[in-house]
Design a protein that fits this description.
The chain has 329 residues and is α/β, with parallel strands linked by helices. 38% of the residues lie in helices and 19% in strands. It has a single domain (37-328), classed as Alpha/Beta hydrolase fold, catalytic domain (Rossmann fold), CATH 3.40.50. It is built from eleven helices and nine strands. Helix 4 links the parallel strand 4 and strand 5.
């Protein structure tokens, strides 16, 4: 048998080694190599509450919201009515109020027409490219859930969170979006008609993300519906707007940890069986839910966590939402 020259043999060996190395590099490239230092692990309820408090503090800091929280009482709402429409069962108003000392926001606000006593309220949140009115549109993917709630004697408020512009120097986009939602709760609490112990939130897509953030960071929210969003951050790195991502986030948490800040309060996540494979699939939702279940079990309230798997696509499951909100508010 003819022997190959030693030079050719060594070249072949080097090529083989490089091929193996590239294979492992490519295999590892899809893995989550972030630190996730605040990942939740099972513990007693007392320690779970300490973990939640610690993580909220860290998140508020990287969201650049510390000064807003510290000076919150000095930011007067000063609401002003822009217009009013009689919808029969309820009155729809467009109003504006101060979000910060230098910035006002405009929202849709509804109040039932013929009720006595205090009422529950829901912050209704749209997704990308949406407007505050879209959640009242029954022909949209939101199924008019805000209008349905308004007609069932809920006070509703719908802000705008679709902006991709940072309005104030020293802020970040997600922090400004979240602060506007927190101010919506402040406005609801300023109304004698609203029961402060029965305020919830619901949203789809970006609205589902912001419902997660609002309830996670503000424990005045007593029931949450996060539709079309339950997933992992790795999935959001591909084919999605990067407005979800900001410095310091992935070093601390994944979405399961943010959702875990809601425990033990009632949380329903909705994911459709017809979601595209590169979007918010049921399979990813179930994986993420397993992580969130840990803290609900630690609080001994597993019944307060639900995954609504429906037959639709990227849309609100209206019957599921209404049942959940009615059950818990």
């Amino acid at each position: 048998m003819e022997k190959k020259p030693k030079k050719i043999v060594w070249v072949n060996i080097i090529v083989m080694l490089v091929t193996i190395l590239l294979f492992f590099v490519n295999s590892l490239s899809g893995l989550d190599n972030t630190v996730r230092t605040m990942k939740y692990s099972s513990r007693c309820a007392k320690d779970a509450a300490i973990w939640q408090s610690d993580l909220r503090s860290k998140l508020f800091h990287i969201l650049k919201m510390d000064d807003l929280l510290a000076n919150r009482e000095s930011i007067i709402l000063n609401p002003k009515e822009i217009l009013s429409e009689d919808k029969g069962d309820y009155v729809l108003k467009e109003i504006e109020f101060n979000s910060t000392k230098d910035r006002r926001i405009r929202v849709i606000f509804t109040i039932p027409s013929k009720t006595k006593g205090t009422l529950p309220a829901v912050v209704c949140i749209h997704g990308h490219n949406g407007t505050s009115r879209i959640v009242y549109d029954k022909t949209s993917i939101y199924k008019g859930f805000a209008a349905e709630l308004a007609a069932k004697n809920y006070v509703t408020i719908a802000p705008v969170v679709s902006q991709h512009e940072v309005y104030e120097e020293g802020r970040i986009l997600m922090g400004e979006r979240l602060w506007d939602l927190i101010r919506c709760i402040d406005f609801l609490e300023s109304l004698a008609k609203v029961d402060k112990n029965r305020i919830g939130c619901a949203g789809l897509s970006l609205g589902g993300e912001m419902a997660m953030w609002l309830s996670a960071m503000d424990d005045r929210i007593q029931a949450t519906v996060s539709s079309g969003f339950l997933t992992k951050m790795n999935q959001m790195e591909q084919n999605h707007c990067k407005c979800w991502k900001f410095p310091g986030l992935r070093e601390l948490v994944d979405y399961a940890d943010i959702y875990s800040l809601i425990a033990p309060r009632p949380l329903q996540c909705q994911n459709g069986l017809k979601e595209p494979l590169n979007d918010f699939t049921v399979a990813l939702a179930r994986e993420t839910l397993k992580e969130i279940e840990l803290i609900y079990r630690d609080y001994q309230r597993p019944e307060n966590l639900a995954l609504d798997v429906h037959n639709g696509a990227h849309e609100i499951d209206l019957p599921g939402l209404l049942y959940f909100i009615n059950e818990h508010l």
